Protein: Flavin reductase
Organism: Paenibacillus validus
Amino acid sequence: MDDRTFRNAMGKFVTGVTVITTGAGEEVHGMTANAFLSVSLNPRLVLISIGEKAKMLDKIKESGRYAVSFLAADQQETSMLFAGQIKDGRTLDFEWFDRMPVIKGALGHLTCRVVSEHVVGDHTLFVGEVSDIQLNEGEPLIYFQGKYRELASINEQRLSS
């Protein structure tokens, strides 16, 4: 199989959209990622996957911590900014939670301490122990077949049935 076929197959899996952030020295760094998953309830562990060419890789190794912000349906532009799809020089003001930078208006934030890292293929998997959680109300931004999507509300689904 070729790379395009593999990418198309992975695009069939609906994912939420996150922004991973960390502070390294005086600087804040962030990147959009959908490679995030829950690993364990006890201890509370999550995993992120960072490509070997991403600047974020060295920043997380340096800081030993990261935060995950679950983006809300109205935060597509934020996702695009941290994915490098918007390059007009704009910046984003961060909120601070548990001494970590997080995205304002996100559905939730996790702060994590790296407990292990594993190089697998062209990515590094960072397992993080969750140190704090903050939750907000709203609908998620989701990604499917290379496009941003929104969930249909329950009321809309009932009306169309």
Remarks:
- DSSP finds four helices and twelve strands in the chain.
